[in-house]
Design goal:
The protein is of the alpha/beta class. It has two domains: 11-218, Alanine racemase (TIM Barrel, Alpha-Beta Barrel), CATH 3.20.20; 235-357, Lyase, Ornithine Decarboxylase, Chain A, domain 1 (Beta Barrel). The chain is built from eleven helices and 18 strands.
Length: 358
Amino acid sequence: MSRLIRAVINTQALRHNLRIIRQRAAGARVMAVVKANAYGHGLVATALALPGVDAFAVARLEEALALRAAGVMTPIVLLEGVFTAEQLQESARHGLELVVHDALQIELLERMSGAHRFVLWLKIDTGMNRLGFRPAQFAAALARVRSLRPAPLEVRLLTHLACADARDNAMTQRQLALFRDAIRGLTRPVSIANSAGLFGTLPLQCDWVRPGLALYGASPFADCDAAALDLRPVMTLTSSVIAVRDVARGETVGYGAAWQAGRDSRIAIVAAGYGDGIPRNLAEGTPVLINGQRAPLAGRVSMDMIGVDVTGLEQVQVGTPAVLWGEGLPVEEVARHAGTIPYELLCSVSQRVPIELG
Ligand SMILES: *Cc1c(COP(=O)(O)O)cnc(C)c1O
């Protein structure tokens, strides 16, 4: 029996994507976003496969500590900053860089004893309305941060775009104008672009870019696939056929008898289900690669299995490889069949799926 579901990580593709990002970034430094277990690719393995980046970015302290525990000495930015004095101390101990988006975080820094000098990333909310100081509060926040003692090692500035995946979006233009106004006259390093900002059409001159999705070889745009951006898929989620059966016209497959054979059919059962992170709402007809050939999903996704209509395909038997997404089948395409975005599929690969470097 060949092996069941696993996420095979192509580290060459990862490094290729980093090269493309560097070209696109035209000299800007690259903060590789590895939050959410590196978008499901494995936090530590991904970071170790990217020795050349200028910094890593994570959402939570625990993710940063896991990187440090694995010996990663690259700068690490906490994108949400810290929320308690203990987290602040821990960040100092491990040399983490902090996003500061709220007055409470400045208070924590003011109250901190000790001589640690942080690199701080002051966040300006230019319309995302999630994290950050509004432009009107920004100057005061910057003044407070600058008067911290000991002084921060450096204060950098960032904002986040709400609609960067829509090309030439008016919202993006407004956000950029607000950002430029807010930082006028300041010569501090700035960061704006996520993957969509980086590969979009608007010039976002900045000193740092913050790609996540593009690193993993998926396109942030609905109207443009990763290959057109010269990005290669890093994760291939692969499994095997564990049973093959013939069903007569009129018979049904799976829960709810939701799929009915319109002709005499051959169904391959593949060991991959929502317990592995395959969305249960994948539409009938979603492509699966069986032996490298596209075949449509037949019936509902079960916890551990799916059915695939392999009628007419040659040499499908127990052990035949099946690819859910990755090389040959973009995760963006599968995401569309689930009514979601590639981010969610990648992050949802469950803990029980082993990650393998390929
Ligand atoms: C997640 C995140 C990114 C990366 O976004 P992608 O769309 O995956 O490139 C960049 N910046 C911030 C603040 C983020 O939270």
